[in-house]
Amino acid sequence: MCAKSCNLATSASRTGEILHELEEKMEVARIQLKVLDALNMLRRMPEVAAAIGMLNEELMDITKLYGDFAEPFELAECKLAIVHCAGHYDPTLVESLWRDIIDNGVSVWSVSVCACACMCIRGASCLLLYMYVYVIVV
Length: 138
Prior knowledge:
Blueprint: H1 2-41, H2 46-57, H3 62-70, H4 76-86, H5 91-103, H6 113-137
Helix pairs in contact: 1-2, 1-3, 1-4, 3-4, 4-5, 5-6
């Protein structure tokens, strides 16, 4: 009896781990799609076309999305989404990304409400409030 219940508990635990891994991959896939959409809006240059091709071939990891796509193509909104996804809450980096978004004239409404809410909960509420007020006033 104990062996059966142990196997059942192990099976449920493994199922939970698999579900968690799949949820993480889905979040990364959503960000990859966001990066792909952002690249599609850029002018057609050979390096953009090559990047789009690579993004369409396979699911990238979050570090590769940041370093090979979001950073070189200066996709501030994508970088902010990646920072959120990775759980990397560096206030200086977040502030810098928000400044880039605002300086580039991107509407604050185009940033994921979920990402903003999560960053507020994580302690960046003062920064977000400042950025929101800055956009409204300007």
